[in-house]
Amino acid sequence: MRLPKMNVRKILKIYQTLLNKRPYLVQAVQTGTLMGAGDFISQTVIEKKSVKYVDYKRTLRFSSIGFFVGGPALRAWYGFLNKYIGSKGKAVAIKKVFVDQFIFAPTFLLFILASVGIMQGKALENIENDIKYNYLDVLKTNYYIWPLVQIINFYYVPLQYQVLIVQTVALFWNTYLSWKTNRNGLIQ
């Protein structure tokens, strides 16, 4: 059986239609998918597990953070920034990056670290220790990557595509976060 040939324009048109009709759902699905992909890459490339030994429950847990919280939260956050800071211009983009990196990023990273610990079934004390061990390092790494990405995103990219752009870059970021939050040396 031969699959129908779909061109990129048609796929983008379908994506645009779905994004306009159901922005939160589309962005939840893409964020969850890319967070799951980041975990899978972490396990297979960084941790060097064969596909046979991938912890798919771990991948599903990490993906669910993106689906249930990450995608919807990013969509709402970018809408908030657009509404209260603006949507065009260099000064607006710089203000958005500043607010994003000093309010959203520290809060959301803390949430991710806590969520991963909870989903791993760790005791509260161990989650707190993991956060103490990882949080500043993850936040510092965030500041090396995300301000530049976000200045480009906020200046050049229309609101409806901002989560997609961020999540495309975040595939690599999610790989790092998954590795960082699942290292064997951490308290279990």
Automatic annotation (TrEMBL):
The reply to whether Transmembrane helix figures as a keyword in the UniProt entry is: yes
Q: Which GO terms describe its cellular component?
A: membrane; mitochondrion
Q: What is its main location?
A: membrane
Where exactly are the transmembrane stretches of this chain? 59-78, 98-119
* Protein name, as recorded: Mitochondrial inner membrane protein Mpv17
Membrane topology reported for the UniProt record:
Multi-pass membrane protein
PANTHER family per record: PEROXISOMAL MEMBRANE PROTEIN 2, PXMP2 MPV17, PROTEIN MPV17
Any idea which UniProt keywords this protein has? Membrane, Transmembrane, Transmembrane helix
Record-linked InterPro entries: Mpv17_PMP22 (IPR007248)
Q: Where in the cell is it found?
A: Membrane
Its domain of life reads Eukaryota
The entry sums up its family as follows: Belongs to the peroxisomal membrane protein PXMP2/4 family.
Q: Name one GO biological process term.
A: regulation of mitochondrial DNA metabolic process
Query: What GO MF annotations does this protein's record show?
Result: channel activity
**Pfam families in the record:** Mpv17_PMP22
